[in-house]
Specification:
The chain is of the alpha/beta class. The protein has 13 helices and 14 strands. Strand 12 and strand 13 form a beta hairpin. The structure holds pyridoxal-5'-phosphate (PLP).
Amino acid sequence: MSAPPIYLDFNATTPVDPAVLEAMLPFLRDRFGNPSSAHAYGRAAAEALARARAQVAALLEAAPEEVVFTSCATESINLAVKGIAFARRAQGRHLVLSAVEHPAAAEACAYLAREHGFEVTAVPVETDGRVDPARLLQAVRDDTALVTLIHAQNETGALQPVQEVGEALRARGVPFHVDASQSAGKVPLSVRALACDALSLAGHKLYAPKGVGALWVRKGLSLHPLLHGAPYEGGRRGGTANVPHAVALGAACELSVAWLGSDGPELQWAMRDRLQEALEAATGASLNGPEDARLPNTLNVSFPGVIGNELLEAAPEIAASTGSACHAGTHEPSGVLLAMGRAPEDALGAVRLSLGRSTTEEEMYVAAAALERSWKRLRR
Ligand code: PLP
């Protein structure tokens, strides 16, 4: 049997860390209580939930009561975007976002425009995939109800200037939501430093299972719930808490704090750069995204003269992805790369390689060699 492919798609999802699985298992077995129950089973669940909330808050340098557990980042983002927009609609119905948001944010805004009379301004990005803060701030108006910005772009890893934007918006009293689904656990995050009002994250991007996310909401910010029901999560989300998954997210956040304090991110950055240099030298591949203001684990490169999807198909030694979609046999370039001004043929040649905490130097050599071989076979 051949070895499983080297996993280089950690921005799509991560495996569950064994320590995270260990932490959650008791809550799927004998510690199954409902955190609202007054007896010992309920109290054990409530205590675990409180601890998990504190662990998530610690990663974000936030207060535990500001953390709302959700089912995924998409839910967190929808709760932030719609919840804040609905709470603020008397003051204005204008929303601002960048042209490279994840569909979770872009579609939530599109829904508000379509069904609730909001106007949406999508601010273009520069050729490195970053938004110019001055350009974004120019789009903000007196009737702007919310600005939402992706912290780290999922395809390119580009880090947006959230702190600069946040400080300027705070001075103008405009609520600011940050989609930190890709940055959480990969770069340090402080909601105070970022000067934001709400921040979303996803468990399965930081070694917790799928099915859990969190939304941090600044104390005092009004937000309409999307799930109406019992007043759980401080009245911001009905529905009995998913205790095992919340515990998993808490444990994953604690592991992330330890990872960020270790030399792991720096070693990952160096490994990623060596892979980039090897691919550039061997194939003439060109970087999509900023050289420096980027997640340490992400490398998006366009290979000349090939289609990214075909390149990956011909390199079964690795599991990675492209931002392009394939419909009925025809390939469509990534909208994110097009928004950065890449030519369609260059965008079609793009491959995203995203490293994880377990990625090794040896895997980098194998991946570089596999991609070089595949490119030499396919190039036109
Ligand atoms: N935001 C960003 C930046 C993402 O990368 C993703 C997932 O890829 C999401 C939001 C949505 O996450 P989920 O599908 O887990 O809800």
